[in-house]
Amino acid sequence: MYSKVLLSAALLVCVSAQVSMPPGYAEKYPITSQFSRSVRHPRDIHDFVTWDKEMGGGKVFGTLGESDQGLFGKGGYNREFFNDDRGKLTGQAYGTRVLGPGGDSTSYGGRLDWANENAKAAIDLNRQIGGSAGIEASASGVWDLGKNTHLSAGGVVSKEFGHRRPDVGLQAQITHEW
Fold this sequence. Notes:
Layout: H1 2-19, H2 25-28, E1 48-55, E2 58-67, E3 70-84, E4 87-100, E5 103-115, E6 119-128, E7 133-144, E8 149-160, E9 167-176
Antiparallel strand pairs: 1-2, 2-3, 3-4, 4-5, 5-6, 6-7, 7-8, 8-9
Protein name: Gloverin-like
Keywords: Signal
Signal peptide: 1-17
């Protein structure tokens, strides 16, 4: 009997606390769909920490953060191999980790990028733990065919290992300025 009275009193206090508001409170702090998930404002985009440090002729980098989808982290090493008349060649090794309510994922990979004044090319090899591995290569360039004529061309090939055929994309364009 005593517990029923105490429970009823606690329930009455909670209900009256939710219903009563001081004058002017509703205008100053409007309540709009407080239980609707779609009205919820996204978290500030600055909910992450990033850092980098020169090390071993290259740069070690990392990012840790959070969003509505979960926690994430990315780290890696970036190095410039050469930057001269041959062009610029950089390499990168990286890894990522994501923890979220729908599950988690871990992936790692490596990338090479080359560029000069006319063209650029890249190759990226990656692997997801518990998933598949893949490779992607891309190249593009612009060359002068004459004083006012330019050729631009590019392509990409990507292959997920374990599947039969790669995805291929090509594009070329000749432009003449009158």
